[in-house]
């Protein structure tokens, strides 16, 4: 769940405009009722025809090749010194410096294999740096809305993904608290198995752990972790997760007092 500054929004006119209307009336052409063995819920769907589908994930590979700090014993000072000598990429390091050749070869091999699980263990590689390991169809953009911060029902799950060169937005809406379990069942069986990487804003801290707890509450299992993982201590080990909140805090360090999604969007 992203953090918004609600004081900057005046929705009074919207409340008055749509007072007494049902969602089915407002979204007659793009709503569906999804039914499964746990019940039913409403799904709202939008398709963004003009949304840019070329995210150029391959550029993250190029950036990684220029990051000499991924090699053991190379910090910022040594990296600058090496680049001053014309050693600018990991490939240069492999051929032009015997001391770091073995470690550079190791990183290059991980890049070649697209082994993002091993790459992301490196302290100088962030979530986005391994974006080249995925196709855009592997990405699941995700956000949730709940009735509270702890152990309360999820009422809306918003997801976005690329399909047939178009971007689709789906909202799973619980019209009553009893419909939450059907949404969780849909996530568990239909949505999560189709993707490899989450994209969120502060989802590592909130959305994914929250979803994990609700899945455990209803089904006593969390499909985002392996059998050997502790279910109530770890929420996700199977999916890569690009959390834009942490990336924005690093990229725009010192520029904002609070790194809410509203501030970043503006």
TrEMBL record:
Q: Which Gene3D superfamilies match?
A: Ribonuclease H-like superfamily/Ribonuclease H (3.30.420.10)
Pfam families in UniProt: RNase_H_2
InterPro entries (UniProt xref)? RNaseH-like_sf, RNaseH_sf, YprB_RNase_H-like_dom
YprB ribonuclease H-like domain boundaries: 140-265
Q: Which GO molecular function terms does the record list?
A: nucleic acid binding
Cite the PANTHER family for this sequence: EXONUCLEASE-LIKE PROTEIN (PTHR38462), YPRB RIBONUCLEASE H-LIKE DOMAIN-CONTAINING PROTEIN (PTHR38462:SF1)
Q: What is this protein called?
A: YprB ribonuclease H-like domain-containing protein
Species, as recorded: marine sediment metagenome
């Amino acid at each position: 769940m992203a953090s918004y500054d609600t004081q900057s929004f005046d929705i009074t006119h919207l409340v008055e405009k749509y007072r007494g209307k049902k969602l089915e009336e407002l979204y007659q052409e793009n709503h569906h009722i999804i039914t499964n063995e746990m019940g039913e819920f409403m799904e709202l769907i939008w398709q963004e025809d003009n949304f840019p589908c070329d995210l150029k994930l391959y550029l993250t590979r190029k950036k990684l090749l220029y990051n000499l700090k991924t090699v053991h014993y190379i910090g910022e000072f040594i990296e600058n010194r090496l680049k001053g000598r014309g050693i600018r990429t990991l490939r240069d390091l492999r051929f032009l410096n015997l001391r770091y050749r073995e470690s550079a070869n190791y990183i290059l091999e991980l890049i070649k294999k697209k082994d993002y699980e091993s790459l992301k263990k490196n302290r100088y590689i962030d979530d986005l740096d391994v974006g080249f390991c995925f196709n855009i169809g592997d990405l699941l953009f995700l956000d949730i809305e709940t009735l509270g911060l702890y152990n309360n029902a999820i009422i809306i799950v918003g997801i976005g993904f690329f399909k047939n060169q178009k971007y689709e937005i789906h909202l799973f809406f619980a019209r009553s608290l009893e419909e939450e379990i059907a949404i969780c069942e849909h996530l568990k069986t239909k949505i999560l198995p189709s993707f490899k990487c989450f994209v969120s804003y502060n989802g590592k801290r909130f959305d994914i752990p929250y979803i994990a707890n609700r899945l455990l509450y209803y089904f006593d299992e969390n499909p985002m972790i392996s059998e050997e993982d502790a279910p109530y201590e770890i929420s996700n080990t199977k999916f890569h997760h690009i959390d834009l909140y942490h990336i924005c805090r690093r990229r725009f360090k010192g520029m904002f007092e609070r790194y809410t999604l509203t501030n970043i969007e503006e």
